[in-house]
Protein backbone atom coordinates (compact mmCIF):
# COMPACT_ATOMS: atom_id res chain seq x y z
CA UNK A 1 0.00 0.00 0.00
CA UNK A 2 1.46 3.33 -1.06
CA UNK A 3 -1.52 5.59 -0.26
CA UNK A 4 -4.73 5.40 1.78
CA UNK A 5 -7.20 7.19 -0.47
CA UNK A 6 -10.49 5.43 0.28
CA UNK A 7 -11.96 2.15 1.50
CA UNK A 8 -13.30 1.47 -1.98
CA UNK A 9 -9.82 0.64 -3.25
CA UNK A 10 -8.71 -1.49 -0.28
CA UNK A 11 -9.15 -5.24 -0.22
CA UNK A 12 -10.19 -7.28 2.81
CA UNK A 13 -6.61 -8.40 3.51
CA UNK A 14 -5.36 -4.79 3.58
CA UNK A 15 -8.17 -3.74 5.93
CA UNK A 16 -7.42 -6.66 8.26
CA UNK A 17 -3.72 -5.82 8.21
CA UNK A 18 -4.50 -2.23 9.31
CA UNK A 19 -6.84 -3.46 12.07
CA UNK A 20 -4.24 -5.92 13.39
CA UNK A 21 -1.53 -3.23 13.38
CA UNK A 22 -3.90 -0.84 15.19
CA UNK A 23 -4.22 -3.37 18.01
CA UNK A 24 -0.41 -3.51 18.25
CA UNK A 25 -0.19 0.29 18.32
CA UNK A 26 -2.80 0.54 21.04
CA UNK A 27 -1.01 -2.10 23.11
CA UNK A 28 2.31 -0.31 22.65
CA UNK A 29 0.86 3.20 23.22
CA UNK A 30 2.85 6.43 23.29
CA UNK A 31 6.23 7.02 21.62
CA UNK A 32 7.16 4.11 19.34
CA UNK A 33 10.48 2.55 20.47
CA UNK A 34 11.67 2.16 16.86
CA UNK A 35 10.57 5.62 15.68
CA UNK A 36 9.51 4.31 12.24
CA UNK A 37 8.95 7.84 10.86
CA UNK A 38 12.29 9.21 12.13
CA UNK A 39 13.67 11.89 9.84
CA UNK A 40 10.33 12.37 8.04
CA UNK A 41 8.17 15.48 7.74
CA UNK A 42 4.46 15.02 7.02
CA UNK A 43 2.26 17.85 5.75
CA UNK A 44 -1.29 18.01 7.10
CA UNK A 45 -3.17 19.95 4.43
CA UNK A 46 -6.66 20.81 5.71
CA UNK A 47 -9.39 22.75 3.87
CA UNK A 48 -12.04 21.91 6.49
CA UNK A 49 -12.22 22.13 10.29
CA UNK A 50 -11.01 19.28 12.45
CA UNK A 51 -10.43 18.38 16.08
CA UNK A 52 -9.95 14.60 16.21
CA UNK A 53 -8.32 14.01 12.84
CA UNK A 54 -5.87 16.86 13.16
CA UNK A 55 -4.80 16.12 16.74
CA UNK A 56 -4.59 12.35 16.26
CA UNK A 57 -2.42 12.74 13.15
CA UNK A 58 -0.20 15.40 14.72
CA UNK A 59 0.25 13.36 17.92
CA UNK A 60 0.55 10.07 16.01
CA UNK A 61 3.24 11.32 13.62
CA UNK A 62 5.24 12.67 16.59
CA UNK A 63 4.83 9.40 18.51
CA UNK A 64 6.23 7.58 15.47
CA UNK A 65 9.30 9.84 15.42
CA UNK A 66 8.21 12.12 12.54
CA UNK A 67 7.42 15.84 12.35
CA UNK A 68 3.95 17.05 11.34
CA UNK A 69 3.54 20.41 9.58
CA UNK A 70 -0.04 21.68 9.77
CA UNK A 71 -1.13 23.71 6.73
CA UNK A 72 -4.56 25.33 6.74
CA UNK A 73 -5.47 25.55 3.05
CA UNK A 74 -6.55 29.17 3.39
CA UNK A 75 -3.16 30.14 4.82
CA UNK A 76 -1.12 28.79 1.92
CA UNK A 77 -1.29 29.76 -1.75
CA UNK A 78 -3.75 26.92 -2.42
CA UNK A 79 -6.36 29.14 -0.77
CA UNK A 80 -5.56 31.93 -3.28
CA UNK A 81 -5.98 29.72 -6.30
CA UNK A 82 -2.69 27.87 -6.71
CA UNK A 83 -3.70 24.51 -8.18
CA UNK A 84 -3.49 21.28 -6.16
CA UNK A 85 -1.31 19.89 -8.96
CA UNK A 86 1.39 22.52 -8.32
CA UNK A 87 1.00 22.23 -4.53
CA UNK A 88 1.55 18.47 -4.84
CA UNK A 89 4.72 18.86 -6.89
CA UNK A 90 6.15 21.45 -4.48
CA UNK A 91 5.39 19.48 -1.33
CA UNK A 92 6.87 16.31 -2.83
CA UNK A 93 10.27 18.04 -2.92
CA UNK A 94 10.08 18.89 0.79
CA UNK A 95 8.09 16.37 2.80
CA UNK A 96 7.77 12.60 2.87
CA UNK A 97 4.01 12.27 3.31
CA UNK A 98 0.72 14.16 3.25
CA UNK A 99 -2.56 13.91 5.12
CA UNK A 100 -5.30 15.79 3.26
CA UNK A 101 -8.79 16.91 4.32
CA UNK A 102 -10.72 18.58 1.55
CA UNK A 103 -13.86 18.60 -0.59
CA UNK A 104 -13.16 16.77 -3.84
CA UNK A 105 -11.96 13.18 -3.68
CA UNK A 106 -10.28 13.86 -7.03
CA UNK A 107 -7.99 16.44 -5.39
CA UNK A 108 -6.58 13.85 -2.97
CA UNK A 109 -6.15 11.36 -5.80
CA UNK A 110 -4.46 13.96 -8.01
CA UNK A 111 -2.18 14.98 -5.15
CA UNK A 112 -1.17 11.34 -4.59
CA UNK A 113 -0.46 10.66 -8.22
CA UNK A 114 1.42 13.90 -8.98
CA UNK A 115 3.41 14.09 -5.75
CA UNK A 116 4.19 10.39 -5.47
CA UNK A 117 4.63 10.83 -1.72
CA UNK A 118 2.54 8.74 0.70
CA UNK A 119 -0.90 10.35 0.84
CA UNK A 120 -3.74 9.77 3.31
CA UNK A 121 -7.36 10.88 2.86
CA UNK A 122 -8.35 12.59 6.12
CA UNK A 123 -11.93 13.15 4.81
CA UNK A 124 -13.37 14.23 1.51
CA UNK A 125 -16.97 14.70 0.40
CA UNK A 126 -16.91 11.07 -0.75
CA UNK A 127 -15.17 9.09 2.00
CA UNK A 128 -13.74 9.23 5.51
CA UNK A 129 -11.63 6.06 5.45
CA UNK A 130 -9.54 6.70 8.59
CA UNK A 131 -12.75 7.12 10.59
CA UNK A 132 -14.34 3.89 9.45
CA UNK A 133 -11.12 1.85 9.81
CA UNK A 134 -10.90 3.13 13.36
CA UNK A 135 -14.57 2.32 13.97
CA UNK A 136 -14.08 -1.23 12.71
CA UNK A 137 -11.20 -1.56 15.16
CA UNK A 138 -13.44 -0.27 17.99
CA UNK A 139 -16.19 -2.77 17.17
CA UNK A 140 -13.73 -5.66 17.12
CA UNK A 141 -12.23 -4.44 20.39
CA UNK A 142 -15.65 -4.47 22.03
CA UNK A 143 -17.38 -7.39 20.33
CA UNK A 144 -14.43 -9.64 19.41
CA UNK A 145 -15.16 -9.81 15.69
CA UNK A 146 -17.26 -8.35 12.90
CA UNK A 147 -18.50 -11.76 11.83
CA UNK A 148 -22.27 -12.03 11.85
CA UNK A 149 -22.79 -8.45 13.03
CA UNK A 150 -25.34 -5.98 11.73
CA UNK A 151 -24.37 -2.31 11.69
CA UNK A 152 -27.20 0.21 11.34
CA UNK A 153 -26.37 3.73 10.19
CA UNK A 154 -29.07 6.33 10.88
CA UNK A 155 -28.99 9.80 9.30
CA UNK A 156 -27.36 11.14 6.13
CA UNK A 157 -27.00 7.91 4.18
CA UNK A 158 -25.16 9.65 1.34
CA UNK A 159 -22.44 11.37 3.36
CA UNK A 160 -18.74 10.51 3.36
CA UNK A 161 -19.01 8.42 6.55
CA UNK A 162 -21.99 6.42 5.24
CA UNK A 163 -20.21 5.78 1.94
CA UNK A 164 -17.11 4.50 3.70
CA UNK A 165 -19.39 2.19 5.73
CA UNK A 166 -20.88 0.87 2.48
CA UNK A 167 -17.45 -0.07 1.16
CA UNK A 168 -16.34 -1.54 4.49
CA UNK A 169 -19.43 -3.75 4.70
CA UNK A 170 -19.02 -4.90 1.11
CA UNK A 171 -15.34 -5.75 1.56
CA UNK A 172 -15.62 -7.47 4.95
CA UNK A 173 -19.02 -9.12 4.56
CA UNK A 174 -20.94 -7.82 7.57
CA UNK A 175 -24.53 -6.62 7.24
CA UNK A 176 -25.17 -2.88 6.87
CA UNK A 177 -28.54 -1.15 7.17
CA UNK A 178 -28.81 2.53 6.20
CA UNK A 179 -31.87 4.41 7.45
CA UNK A 180 -32.10 7.76 5.70
CA UNK A 181 -34.75 10.06 4.22
CA UNK A 182 -35.34 9.42 0.52
CA UNK A 183 -33.37 12.50 -0.59
CA UNK A 184 -30.34 11.46 1.45
CA UNK A 185 -29.95 7.85 0.49
CA UNK A 186 -26.83 6.65 -1.35
CA UNK A 187 -27.22 6.19 -5.11
CA UNK A 188 -28.65 2.74 -5.91
CA UNK A 189 -25.87 2.31 -8.47
CA UNK A 190 -23.21 2.74 -5.76
CA UNK A 191 -24.86 0.20 -3.47
CA UNK A 192 -25.17 -2.25 -6.37
CA UNK A 193 -21.55 -1.75 -7.38
CA UNK A 194 -20.37 -2.26 -3.80
CA UNK A 195 -22.29 -5.54 -3.47
CA UNK A 196 -22.56 -7.27 -0.10
CA UNK A 197 -25.42 -7.38 2.38
CA UNK A 198 -26.59 -3.75 2.34
CA UNK A 199 -30.15 -2.53 2.83
CA UNK A 200 -31.22 1.09 2.33
CA UNK A 201 -34.53 2.17 3.87
CA UNK A 202 -36.39 5.16 5.29
CA UNK A 203 -37.56 3.09 8.27
CA UNK A 204 -35.41 3.90 11.33
CA UNK A 205 -36.96 1.36 13.70
CA UNK A 206 -37.08 -1.38 11.07
CA UNK A 207 -33.38 -0.83 10.30
CA UNK A 208 -32.57 -0.79 14.01
CA UNK A 209 -34.33 -4.08 14.80
CA UNK A 210 -31.73 -6.56 16.04
CA UNK A 211 -28.79 -4.28 15.19
CA UNK A 212 -25.49 -4.95 16.96
CA UNK A 213 -24.24 -1.42 16.28
CA UNK A 214 -26.24 1.80 15.95
CA UNK A 215 -24.15 4.50 14.27
CA UNK A 216 -24.82 8.09 13.34
CA UNK A 217 -23.10 11.19 12.00
CA UNK A 218 -24.07 14.86 11.71
CA UNK A 219 -27.07 15.81 9.58
CA UNK A 220 -25.16 18.73 8.05
CA UNK A 221 -21.70 17.76 6.86
CA UNK A 222 -18.95 20.30 6.32
CA UNK A 223 -19.52 22.10 3.04
CA UNK A 224 -23.31 21.60 3.21
CA UNK A 225 -24.05 24.52 5.54
CA UNK A 226 -26.19 26.32 2.94
CA UNK A 227 -28.60 23.36 3.02
CA UNK A 228 -29.00 23.49 6.80
CA UNK A 229 -32.68 24.49 6.93
CA UNK A 230 -33.69 21.93 4.30
CA UNK A 231 -31.65 19.20 5.98
CA UNK A 232 -33.05 19.88 9.46
CA UNK A 233 -36.56 19.58 8.00
CA UNK A 234 -35.74 16.32 6.19
CA UNK A 235 -33.83 14.57 8.96
CA UNK A 236 -36.31 14.96 11.85
CA UNK A 237 -36.67 11.46 13.32
CA UNK A 238 -33.48 10.07 11.76
CA UNK A 239 -31.98 9.95 15.21
CA UNK A 240 -30.48 7.46 17.64
CA UNK A 241 -32.87 7.66 20.58
CA UNK A 242 -34.30 5.30 23.18
CA UNK A 243 -36.77 3.87 20.67
CA UNK A 244 -33.97 2.92 18.26
CA UNK A 245 -31.92 1.41 21.10
CA UNK A 246 -34.96 -0.56 22.27
CA UNK A 247 -35.63 -1.77 18.73
CA UNK A 248 -32.06 -3.01 18.54
CA UNK A 249 -32.72 -5.19 21.56
CA UNK A 250 -31.43 -2.97 24.32
CA UNK A 251 -27.66 -3.48 24.23
CA UNK A 252 -26.31 -2.31 20.88
CA UNK A 253 -22.98 -0.54 20.65
CA UNK A 254 -23.96 3.09 20.07
CA UNK A 255 -21.33 4.92 18.05
CA UNK A 256 -20.83 8.45 16.74
CA UNK A 257 -17.85 9.72 14.75
CA UNK A 258 -18.23 13.17 16.40
CA UNK A 259 -18.75 16.09 16.58
CA UNK A 260 -22.25 15.36 17.97
CA UNK A 261 -25.30 17.59 17.87
CA UNK A 262 -27.53 16.55 20.74
CA UNK A 263 -31.22 16.59 19.99
CA UNK A 264 -30.47 16.23 16.28
CA UNK A 265 -28.84 12.95 15.15
CA UNK A 266 -28.65 11.59 18.72
CA UNK A 267 -30.42 12.39 21.97
CA UNK A 268 -28.39 13.72 24.86
CA UNK A 269 -29.59 10.83 27.01
CA UNK A 270 -28.40 8.13 24.60
CA UNK A 271 -25.15 9.97 23.92
CA UNK A 272 -24.24 10.20 27.61
CA UNK A 273 -25.26 6.61 28.30
CA UNK A 274 -22.80 5.54 25.59
CA UNK A 275 -20.07 8.14 26.11
CA UNK A 276 -17.57 5.43 27.09
CA UNK A 277 -17.87 3.77 23.68
CA UNK A 278 -17.99 7.06 21.78
CA UNK A 279 -14.82 8.46 23.34
CA UNK A 280 -13.00 5.11 23.00
CA UNK A 281 -13.97 5.42 19.35
CA UNK A 282 -12.38 8.90 19.24
CA UNK A 283 -9.20 7.67 20.97
CA UNK A 284 -8.88 4.79 18.53
CA UNK A 285 -8.36 7.27 15.69
CA UNK A 286 -4.85 7.76 17.08
CA UNK A 287 -3.96 4.06 17.20
CA UNK A 288 -5.50 3.24 13.83
CA UNK A 289 -3.82 6.14 12.04
CA UNK A 290 -0.46 5.18 13.57
CA UNK A 291 -1.09 1.77 12.02
CA UNK A 292 -1.80 3.33 8.62
CA UNK A 293 1.25 5.61 8.84
CA UNK A 294 3.55 2.63 9.42
CA UNK A 295 1.97 0.43 6.74
CA UNK A 296 2.26 2.78 3.76
CA UNK A 297 5.30 1.87 1.71
CA UNK A 298 7.79 4.77 1.29
N1 LIG B 1 -14.62 12.47 13.41
C1 LIG B 1 -13.78 13.40 12.90
O1 LIG B 1 -13.19 13.25 11.84
O2 LIG B 1 -13.63 14.52 13.69
P1 LIG B 1 -12.92 15.87 13.27
O3 LIG B 1 -13.75 16.52 12.21
O4 LIG B 1 -12.88 16.66 14.55
O5 LIG B 1 -11.54 15.56 12.76
N1 LIG C 1 -19.93 13.79 7.63
C1 LIG C 1 -19.19 14.70 8.50
C2 LIG C 1 -18.10 13.98 9.19
C3 LIG C 1 -17.37 14.81 10.22
C4 LIG C 1 -16.24 14.08 10.86
C5 LIG C 1 -18.66 15.87 7.68
O1 LIG C 1 -18.21 15.65 6.56
O2 LIG C 1 -18.71 17.00 8.17
Explain what this protein looks like in three dimensions:
- With 298 residues, the chain is α/β, with parallel strands linked by helices.
- It has 12 helices and 9 strands.
- The radius of gyration is 19 Å and the shape is globular.
- It folds into 2 domains: 31-127, 3-Layer(aba) Sandwich (Rossmann fold); 131-282, Rossmann fold (3-Layer(aba) Sandwich).
- The longest helix is centred in the C-terminal third of the chain and has 21 residues, at 275-295.
- It has helices at 12-28, 52-63, 84-91, 105-115, 129-143, 160-172, 188-194, 204-208, 228-235, 242-248, 268-273, 275-295; strands spanning 41-46, 67-72, 97-101, 118-121, 150-154, 175-179, 198-201, 213-216, 253-256.
- A 5-stranded parallel beta sheet has the order 7-6-5-8-9, with helices on both faces. Strands 2-1-3-4 form a 4-stranded parallel beta sheet, sandwiched between helices.
- The mean pLDDT is 98.
- The protein binds phosphoric acid mono(formamide)ester and norvaline (NVA).
- Norvaline is lined by residues 123, 128, 159-161, 217-218, 221-222, 257.
- Norvaline binds at residues 123, 128, 159-161, 217-218, 221-222, 257.
Amino acid sequence: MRHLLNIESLDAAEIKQILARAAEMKHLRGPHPEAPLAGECWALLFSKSSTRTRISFEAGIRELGGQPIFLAANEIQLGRGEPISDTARVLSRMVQGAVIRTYAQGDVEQFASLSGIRTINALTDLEHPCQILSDLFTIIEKRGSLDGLTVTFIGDGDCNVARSWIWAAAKLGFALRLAAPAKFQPPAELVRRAGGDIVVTDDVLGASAGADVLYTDVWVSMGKEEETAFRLAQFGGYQINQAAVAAAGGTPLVMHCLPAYRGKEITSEVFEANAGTIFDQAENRLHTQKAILTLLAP
